[in-house]
Amino acid sequence: MVNIIKSKSFKLVLLTPILILLSHYLVVFIHEYAHAFTAWILGYKNSPFDLNYGGISLGNLLLLSNVDQNVNNHLIYASGHPGHVALIAFAGPGIIIFLFFLSSWLIQNKKTKGYPYFLYFLLFFNLWCLGGTYAYVPVRTFTPYGVMVDVLDIEQALNISPWWIYFLIGYLVIFMIWQFFSKTLISIYVNVDISSTIGRASLMIICVLIVFGYCGLAGFVNQGDISHFISATSFLAIPGIIFVLWPTRKWIKAQLKEFKLEK
């Protein structure tokens, strides 16, 4: 029995970086193709697969940092349809938010719980959906004009203040963060059989670093002073978040008991 547990733990360790990369690829391309397909349906692209794939640099191959939807917003504005700019811009983050809740539901589904490795993949897919949303709201909600960011395209096209998005979508993002770290992650501890404190802490720290570190630092790259401040705050909050989410906390143990009863 001990050997089986050790073998499973070893497999999870090996799978973790692979699943992180694969799930990130999937989320990024779903996001960008959502933009491209919407633009194609509206008649602004000849092919929905015509993305800017960003080249073969190591950074782009690993992080897809140069991939974008390759949509000509100037052409759309010139045609007199600013609402279409907003719709195309919303399609990317909109589908990612939808997939966050769909994957959250799948992780809690009784039929899915019988497939631990699939659950483990869904965890990281769900995580990147959360991180991608967080990178827009709140991190880049106040991006200055002249920078290509979906949330800015929505603000400009609809001629609305970024405060509306920060306020309204911000509450949704808070709920998504709460859902992931207080429900989804803890259910993975139980249903993937991650029983040691070291294993749970390691997974939790990886998730925190991806959301509040990697995704949270998006505001540092030419996004203006406010976004820079939010990114700095996100980064500085990481130790406190890890402290609150440590697997031996009483509230974590209480949640674990609930999920074990449901298993």
Structure description:
The chain is mainly α. It has one domain (2-262). It has ten helices and no strands. The chain has helices at 2-41, 58-63, 73-78, 82-108, 116-136, 150-158, 162-191, 197-215, 224-244, 250-262. It is globular and about 60 Å long. The mean pLDDT is 94.
Write the layout of secondary structure elements.
Elements: H1 2-41, H2 58-63, H3 73-78, H4 82-108, H5 116-136, H6 150-158, H7 162-191, H8 197-215, H9 224-244, H10 250-262
Helix pairs in contact: 1-4, 1-5, 4-5, 4-6, 4-7, 5-7, 5-8, 7-10, 8-9
Name the features.
263 residues; mainly alpha; 10 helices
**Rounded Rg:** 20 Å
Largest sheet: none
Query: How much beta, percentage-wise?
Result: under 5%
Structural class: mainly alpha
> What is the molecular shape?
globular
**Count of DSSP H/I helices:** 10
Cα separation of the termini: 20 Å
Question: What value does the average pLDDT take?
Answer: 94
How many beta-strand segments? 0
Low-confidence stretches: none
| Helix and strand element order | HHHHHHHHHH
In short:
This protein has 263 residues and is mainly α. The chain is built from 10 helices and no strands. α1 crosses α5 and α4 runs parallel beside α7.
